[in-house]
Input
Amino acid sequence: MARRTPILVVDDDPAIRDFVQLALEDEGYDVIVAVDGLDALEAIRNRRPGLILLDMRMPRMNGWEFAEMYRRERSPHAPILIMTAGRDATLSEIGASGWLGKPFDLDQLIANVRRHFHSPADLP
Output
């Protein structure tokens, strides 16, 4: 049985990570989680995601550093959806496809994931 294309959730806040993971799994998506950019880089080397939900402010490797390193990885690249409470991350500076302001609700999350997920065949 082939595995479906996952969504990678990168956030150092366990409450947000758990909320997003549970919400997306309830919608039928496969989800991989990472606590920071370093963990995320390791995760994408093992399994390529169809979308990356990326927090910007994290320890060890933040979202800006992750995006720069990720763009150096072999392609294809998944769309990146920024999840942040700050207003200092611009879409163009990291090559993001979209932005989801914290706090966000379940409907906003699901709508943005459906809009940006790159593999329509994998949508539930």
